[in-house]
Every structure is written in structure tokens, then in C-alpha cells.
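User: Show me a protein chain along with its predicted structure.
Assistant: Here is one chain, sequence first, then C-alpha cells.
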Amino acid sequence: MALYAELHRHLGGSVVPRVLWRFFQRSHSDLAQQFIDYTAFEDFYTRPRSSLAEYLELHTLVESVQNNETLPYFIYRLMRGAYVFENLAYLELRYTPYYRTPEDLSQTQRIDRMAQIVETVGQASQLNEYPIITSQILCMHSRLPYEVNRAIVDLAAQMPNYICGIDIAGGDALYGERMDEFVELYAYARNLGLNTTGHVYETTEGCHPELLPYLMRIGHGIQIPLLHPELLPLVAQRKQCLEICPTTYLKTGTLQDIQQLKVVFDRCFEAGVDIAICTDNAGLHNVRLPFEYESLLTHDIISFSQLKTCQENAFRHAFAWPLNQEPISILNRALQASPDLALLTDTTLPEYS
């Protein structure tokens, strides 16, 4: 069994349609009653949107029902699916903790409640029956004030047992007017020793070179090879990894055809830029990580050897993977150390190309 690492998955967008529908039926019937039946809800929840801004509005639907009391319900089902259906050995969950706190509290009170949210997510993610190594990435948000975003950075530094890095989310077209502010926050985070990634170069409106020097990984970043390939040598020199989420770009209208990703992969491989393949919002897309792999292969976007390289990249660039090797290396050593197990891998079946 192959074991994978997932570096870019949003907590809000990770809830698959059926789980969210059942939750609405049991606890928020007013939301369920907006749809004739499950099929109508699934179509609404997973259909492509005309823009990234429209697509991001779906996050508010899930955020409105994710709080300190309900998060264990959603996370248990997330972890179960990730283990049983996706063969994940490692998972980084990203989200904005402020948006999981009660809206009727003051800003100061909501900031104070964020640590409780982080602890709830961290504890709910540790399941003996579904052993996946997990960590959290806290997202600053383009719609939140400076004080809240700085508090998110501070919280990430204060809780390293649960948090492995920070991000900036909320639509990369909104960063421009506050660029000095976000540069300052990223510089502050790096001075605190935090790992960093960020949603930039996802859309044509989100090309913000000012943030690139502060990022260890780049959330999406597809517009670098598509529109600004001159930046690729510097990205390779900095050893920055692109977190590519194929289905996202079709759901948001950023790309019209998956074949457009071939240029992204070809130029990155030629320039020596690492790519990790991710899902982004597996629930909103109703897909899982192995599907993303298969889709890229069947559309001849990448080869099997390139896929293997991307899978290795995910473990190498993971912020909290505790080993200096991926699971396949451990399993191979176990097979080599045990003659009985090694015999099981010796097969006389013909090979097929």
C-alpha cells in the first residue's frame, strides 16, 4: 500500500458533501431545507464557480457551523476518510482559527478563544484507529484586520506542538492594498522561526513578488510558470515548493482545461522547481488525493516517474514530518531485513508496461 503526504488541505473545504448534509439534517435543519434533497445540495456544493471570489464564499457556509463543539465531529470523519480512502501517512490542515470562534464576542475575546480552537483541532486529529501524523497551518486572512492576523502569527509561535506553520488566505487579489502589512507579518513570522507558505500566484490578479522571499512553500503558484517563468530559477534556488491543487483551478475558473497544467509541470521540472500535488478542498471538489494523481496521469500531464518525484517532494517539504525519509523507504528496509517478508515480494507474474 502506498502512503501519501497531503500538504494543502483546508479544514472548511475538507468536509465531503454527504457528511455536511447529514450534519445539516441533524443539527441545522434550516440549512438543509434550502435544498430539495441531497442531490440538489451536492450539486450546489461541488459545482464549478465562475471565479475564485465566488468559490471562496462556500467556505463561509462550513465555517458557520464549525466551532469548538462541532469540530471533533467533522475532524473524526475527515481523518477516517483520509486513512481509509486516501492512504495518507501525513496531513497538514490549514484554517483561520478566528472564524471558528463565536461571532457575538468582541474581537479581543475571539482572539483569546483561538488557542482553544487550535487545541480542539489538535486533539481531535490524534486517533489511534486512524494513525496519521497531522499538524496545523494557521491562516492569516485578507479580510481580517492587522491585529487579528498578528495574533494568529503569535499563536502559531506559542503552540508548536500543534502548529507547523502559517499561511495567508482569503483571495490573493485582495492582498495588494495591504502588501506592506503582510510583508511585515511574514518577516515577523520568519524572525519567530515559523515555517511559511502563502496563497500567491494562484490567479492572474494574485501575482505578488513582494511576498515570495518570505515563503518556504508557495500555495498554488501556477501563474509563475504560466505567466512569469523568469522567476522559476529563483524559486528553484530558494528551494521553494509549489503546492499544486489540480481540481481547484477548474472549479474556480482559473483554468479552462486541465491540459493547461502540462505547461506548469513541464516548466517546473525543467527549472528544477519542486511540486507537491494536493487537494486543497477535497470536500468542495468531492475528490480525494489519489484521484488527483490519476487525473494528471490519464490526461498525460505527468509521467509515472514525475508523479513519484512529486510524492517524494511532499514528504521532503512537509513542515512536521518527523522522519528524514518517506514511508516506502521504511517498508523496503523492513522487507530486506526479514527473509520471510522478502519472499512474499518475489513473484513470477509477468510484468506489464
